[in-house]
Specification:
Blueprint lengths: L6 H9 L6 E7 L8 H8 L7 E6 L3 H11 L6 E6 L4 H4 L11 H14 L3 E7 L8 H10 L4 E5 L13 H10 L4 E4 L5 H11 L3 E3 L2 H5 L3 H9 L9 H15 L6 H15 L8 H6 L5 H12 L10 H4 L7
Parallel strand pairs: 1-2, 2-3, 3-4, 4-5, 5-6, 6-7
Helix pairs in contact: 3-5, 5-6, 8-10, 11-14
The structure holds flavin mononucleotide.
The site of flavin mononucleotide has 18 residues, from strand 1 and helix 9.
């Protein structure tokens, strides 16, 4: 995830159990691009012992081929192409999710990259640009190029991050593709993760915002898969996580106010799972100093009760998703 998933963030996730594989932020690829230094550093500094997949975004075939050949020299498990980014600045340039409007172009890009990439080559896609109907046309293109993994974020680009997530289309992909399919979109609890795996028949899950909110989620899903009871953090464990997040993000030369602002970005995810009335997030968004920021965390979370950190609708067992 842009501006989130660097080596420090992966290291922090790993402390809580972590993922089996990590994706980099995407490298922006165009005629004069060079792989971004800070993303290269995340690969070089990966201390989790788990594989890393290098993701690229772009549409210029010679540049994508050049970059893929360069990236595959690094300690990465695969080269991944992003066909899902919904940011207007990206899709209007016909990159990321914007490419889904031009299936023939995807066909050419995948052909060139499949030839150029000698390690595993994977694709992360949404299910269409404007409409889910487009997915039927996209799947045969993914299948044709013998990719090694297809990750499906089952929303259209036009949907951005709104519900529903079309898990039925991930199942369709699992049935149609020879390669493994990874399901992505709106997984926030271990129970829900199992439901998504069952419903989609996917071989794995990619989780984004859910683990910023709760790094315990990785191990909770493992517990659930083993048929064990799921254990939840206590409020004070969450405070500890927020401190660890601060340390992992701390930059000695950035003013305190900037660091607080950066933390608020993470808290937008975590805060949704704290309390029912939104007052935690409301207060956090107004904090300007580190002291005030952590005082608010203490006030809401310094307790020994279970902190589920799940959207209230899931806790109530009324997921509109499934
Ligand atoms: C801040 C942010 C940055 C993201 N950056 C990337 C990215 O660089 N590459 C990518 O494939 N997806 C990116 N995504 C999308 C996520 O990988 C994921 O597909 C999406 O958030 C849905 O999954 P989730 O509900 O588990 O978060 C980003 C999402 C967010 C919220």
């Amino acid at each position: 995830m842009q501006d989130v998933t660097d080596a420090a963030f992966w290291k922090l996730m790993h402390r809580y159990g972590g993922a089996d594989v990590y994706w980099t932020e995407y490298f922006r690829v165009h005629a004069v691009s060079r792989p971004e230094k800070w993303i290269l550093e995340s690969i070089e500094q990966n201390s989790t012992g788990k594989p890393v997949i290098a993701q690229m975004i772009g549409n210029d075939i010679p540049s994508l081929v050049r970059t893929a050949k360069e990236l595959q020299q690094l300690p990465v498990a695969a080269i991944d192409l992003n066909l899902g980014c919904p940011a207007p600045i990206v899709y209007k340039k016909c990159a990321g999710g914007g490419l889904l409007r031009e299936p023939q172009r995807i066909d050419s890009i995948l052909g060139a990259l499949r030839d150029a990439v000698s390690i595993k080559f994977t694709v992360k896609t949404r299910v269409g640009f404007n409409s889910v109907e487009e997915f039927d046309m996209l799947l045969p293109i993914f299948a044709k190029h013998l990719i090694d993994l297809l990750t499906v974020h089952a929303r259209t680009v036009a949907q951005m991050y709104r519900l529903p997530v079309h898990y039925d289309l991930i199942r369709h992909a699992s049935e149609a593709m020879k390669c493994p399919v990874c399901a992505n979109g709106h997984v926030y609890s271990a129970d829900q993760a199992l439901e998504v795996l069952n419903q989609t028949k996917a071989r794995g899950l990619m989780i984004g915002r859910g683990v910023i909110r709760s790094p315990w989620l990785f191990d909770q899903i493992r517990q659930r898969l083993r048929g064990e009871a799921v254990t939840y953090p206590r409020g004070r464990d969450v405070v500890e996580y927020v401190h660890a997040l601060w340390e992992s993000q701390a930059s000695f030369d950035a003013p305190e106010k900037i660091q607080v602002e950066r933390m608020k970005k993470f808290m937008n995810y975590l805060g949704e799972g704290v309390g029912l009335d939104g007052s935690f997030l409301h207060q956090i968004r107004r904090a300007e100093t580190k002291e005030k920021f952590f005082n608010i965390c203490q006030e809401f979370l310094d307790h020994d009760e279970q902190a589920r950190l799940e959207p209230q609708i899931l806790i109530a067992g009324k997921s509109s998703q499934m």
